[in-house]
Amino acid sequence: MLRSMLMGAVAGARAMTPLAALAATRGGMRAPVFSAGSLMLATGELVGDKRHDAPDRIVPAGIAGRLVSGAIAGAACARRDDRVAGALVGAAAAVVASHLTFRLRQAATRRWGQTASGLIEDGLAIAGAAVLARV
Questions:
Q1: What's the whole-model pTM score?
Q2: How far is Cα 94 from Cα 85, in angstroms, rounded to an integer?
Q3: Under 8 Å CB-to-CB from 128, ≥6 apart: which residues?
Q4: Which of 50, 74, 116, 118 could bond to 4 as cystine, CB 3.0-4.6 Å?
Q5: Burial class, 13, CB count within 10 angstroms (exposed 0-12 / middle 13-18 / buried 19+)
Q6: pLDDT tens digits, the chain, 135 residues: what are they?
Q7: Residue 128: enclosing H or E segment and its boundaries?
């Protein structure tokens, strides 16, 4: 369940990154359309996040997307007989992490600016998702 929780937390910061990492490492050849689509969506999210008019991740639509992504990623990281619990843990972690990373990002933005703080957050989310997807 730890991996489900951590992957859900990554979804709290970047909703599409965990799904793209899982698709790239687990289903790339079996589901190339899903893999390519999730990578495109994740890239769009990373680019869009640097815009000054990007909505906050804690608005209802942002939380909903992160909750769903965290649930899917959490289920994918759980053992086959624990998928429901993994989904619940991943979803809960995504919601909590959304609020935590939002506050951290606000503080980082005040100090380093929107783009620099976003790039740092991107790097942490991508690295975390990549490691967790391979475990």
A1: 0.89
A2: 14
A3: 6, 9, 10
A4: 74
A5: buried
A6: 999 999 999 999 999 999 999 988 876 556 677 778 888 888 888 888 778 788 899 999 999 999 999 999 999 999 999 999 999 999 999 999 999 999 999 999 999 998 999 999 999 999 999 999 987
A7: helix 114-134
